[in-house]
Task: structure prediction
Amino acid sequence: MGVFDYILAGVFEAFTANPALVLGPLVLSWPVILVALGFFTGVLIGATPGLSGPFVMALALPILISIFGFTPDALLPVLGFLVGVMKGATLGGAVPAILFNTPGTPDAFMTTLDGHPMARNGQGGKALRVAHFASVSGDSFSDIVLFVCAPFLAISIEAFLGLPEKAALMILSLSFVAVVVGKDTWKGLLAACFGLFVASIGTGTDSYPRLSLGSDVLAPGLPTIAVVIGVLVVGEILVSLQEMYLSKRARRAAAEQLAPGDSALSLAERRRLLPFIGVSMSIGTMIGALPGIGTTLAAAMGYTAGRKMHRGTPAFGQGAPEGIAATEAANSAVSGANLIPALSLGIPGNVAAVFIILAADTIGGFNPGPAVFRFSAEEVNPELVVAFALFTLMVVANLLNWLTGAWFMRLLGGLIRIPKQVLLPIVLLLTLTSVYVEGSAMSDVYILLGFGVLGYLMRQSGVPILPFVIAYILAGPLETAIRNAFEASGSDPWFLFSSPVSLLFLALSAAIVLGAGWLRGTPTPDC
Amino acid sequence: MTPRGHLRNLAVALTGCGFALLALAVWIPLDVDTGVIDVWRRNVRIGDAMLPVFSAAGMALAGAVIGVRSLLRDAEPAAGRIDPRFLAWLAATLAAGLALMLLTGPILAWIVTGGETPYRVLRATAPWKYLGFALGGTVMTFGLIALSQHRPSWRLAALAFVATLVIALLYDLPFDNLLLPPNGDF
Result:
């Protein structure tokens, strides 16, 4: 099969392979339905202060796996939903930022600076349109970069890197994530090492499952979904509940809600925004391609770049549409680029990518990494077909975003907000139930809550969560790569230092740890 | 230096180092069958102890640096507050909710059937399958809402009950093969 055959097979797989409804020649497939559902759910959740995309992903993943099962047919609907949520949540975060001066997601904070003043001037609808136009432009650009770069990067890795180099590359990525997330290099390394340790419980190649304490619960290994959701989502819920418990502000009156007002955005106005969008989406895409650096830094850098470019009135911070465009284009451009290391190297760079890799691992049949993009001519590489089907679904989500995103954002502006104090306990029960129905064992719920408390303690102690999660996910592939490299080298104890490339990667890892202060010039506490 | 941030960093360092040393000295030697390097049929290969040993060593190193640094130089303010009263209320609420979830169904089944029909037989039939989840879930949700709102009320209790019921129906009605908590454990 040639390259175009694979692309075509991916498109067909997305649109026809798993039909939900067939009306003559028209086929509506489950992946397309799920990507649409994920997108609208993502916008809704992103627009709800206190919730974010990872919450929905955490809730949905066990449910979707329970519905679709562990079959190859389940892969695209589940991945499609997650991709839809990822795209929708970033867009939705702008709605409350503009209309209520409350960012729906942390990366939408900069949107409040110009979005809310515009809304107060009766231009809320226009601000929403600017946010949508910039967001969808940034997202589409970032996806195109992903489609081009991920296969290219994967092919290069496969062609030039052997087993020791791949192991060294994983160590480099892990060091990078540990150092750039959070404010303290050593706490990041502590979290990453702890993630590796936790992942080693109940696994290994020996007949006795290591570190299982003779327990039947630990012997098959900790349930990955319960561990990841516990530390990421339940920990966040507990921190928010404590904030509300301690804060008197929790009982303050609801913030002023402004009507959307004027919503027209002319072609000339769009053209004026393009330079700001172009710069910001390039910044967001570059930042997104680096593992561990989140949307918040991208938004801040995009806004700063936009402010330097801007001339005239209103100034940035006083209701300039260019300010919204600069922020939204940057934070939306992160999402597609974040999947470059995830799909081409198997290294998740952010929380959304963690859930996509988790879904692929749990369902099976698709192992993100360089092998996915092996263009084998003699026999069909089914993983490559899935990868192109996933790209197709991302295009579907983008088209949906272009066509309906602005309308849906305006619609949400009129919805009544649910108080966070009521919402979070309900989300906790939903999370608990989702995790239970997947394994039908209360031990999964106890593990979920235990890791939730761990996530709470880590957050309150300034120990970043993302290095723990990424190390936990990467531990298996890293150990396998090291074992295979050691055996392939004929048990050479210096196998990791035997080639210049792996030596370079390891030297870079050390340099990153030692030069951490410079790397963290602007901290990015995404997790 | 804020005393709280200073103590928090020391606590992180001690926890990290303590856990790592305990793992290296006790847990790994007693609970992993192969060493860091394993020789099997004259083949030298990496053993199961490699990953936990290296990760524990990394934790010990990171913990030691955090500890020494917090002793030698100014610490940043504590990242967040750990409130023991909140944690106690949270633990009590979750424990009460989970206990009710686990016990309500079997106890009511025992009372109603006089112990003749085990709960396992009833766990997938209405209304039994909903009892534990509805009561435990309502108590848990209401407890947490009341904790964060500081003002429990009948309205919030009703809201918690309705939300729990909606969640139960959301999982139970469309999917025949899914069991609500804790029915899969019986």
Q: What stands out?
A: Chain A touches chain B through 65 residues (CB under 8 Å).
